[in-house]
Amino acid sequence: MLRYTVKRLIQGVITVWFIATATFLAMHSIPGDPLTSDKAVSEEIRKNLEAKYGLDKPLGEQYVIYLANMLQGDFGISFSQENRSVNDIIREHFPVSATLGILAIAFAGLGGILFGALTALYRNRLPDIAIMFLVILGISVPSFVFAALGQLALVNLNDLFGTSVLPVAGWGTVLHMVAPSLVLGLGTMAFLTRLMRSSMLEIVNSDYVRTANSKGLPPTRIFLKHQLRNAILPVITVLGPSIAAITTGGFVVELVFAIPGLGRYFVEAVQQSDYTVIMGTTVFYGAFLVFMVIVVDLLYGLVDPRVRLE
């Protein structure tokens, strides 16, 4: 177990290094000038800005400094937000994105397991057909479309009741979190529902389920202890990457609902060619994704005793 853990950690570090290197090269390859933007500056001011951000050094030296600072947890200073470090941006706004992501994954996980089990139990019947139709919609339609439709529905709902039942945008209370978390979790819930359905259909026809039925065990016990418990394992496998993906995938949803999360600042950084913010948030999210994959790999052996990590 220890050997496997160390091996996975080394692989994770290499992956994060690759993400950091690819991001650095991409940022220095794209056209545009992050220092001037739409403003006309003198040559003297430009040289001072290049010296401040280290852009006056050769590309190889910039890369070495970038990796050295990253190892110390320093992602640099934002180009577009004066005297504000990328670390401060991440520290202040990632908790908002994480809260939204946790609520969305809780909604997606519970809904995916429940609806997936129902579709397997009522296979080829009306509940199965109706839920799978909605699953196809959830997988096919982008989250920003659901975000716009969700806001439109909230506006009509508030007009119908003559009061603000749920806020249309903003952040600060539990009511502000309901609509964006539901919208953000729809795609993941649809994917988990389909995965849970396939897993359940395999379990239903397994030998140990038939043995349990032949012993006369209650259907509820068979469902909870034998079918659901084993069918949920593939869902747990993808849950870690899903948590990271749903947390990092809320960029557009945060913009639509005016949520002050990290994704909103990432989108603004792309629009303003703010290299340091783009590189810092990309590496941070990449490391978060790698970490969640490693955690799930380690927990999988605890959830299923048949799995031996070697």
Structural class, by secondary structure, is: mainly alpha
**Care to count the β-strands?**
0
Summed over residues and divided by their number, the pLDDT gives a mean of 79
Order of helices and strands: HHHHHHHHHHHHH
**How many DSSP H or I helices?**
13
C-alpha Rg (nearest Å): 24 Å
List low-confidence stretches: none
Shape: flat
Question: End-to-end distance, in Å?
Answer: 6 Å
Query: How large a portion of the residues is in β-strands, by DSSP E?
Result: under 5%
Percent in helix: over 70%
> How does the major sheet shape up?
none
General description of the model:
This protein has 310 residues and is mainly alpha-helical. Helix content is 75%, strand content 0%. The protein has 13 helices and no strands. It has helices spanning 2-27, 43-53, 59-71, 86-121, 126-140, 143-161, 174-204, 207-214, 219-231, 233-248, 251-256, 262-272, 275-303.
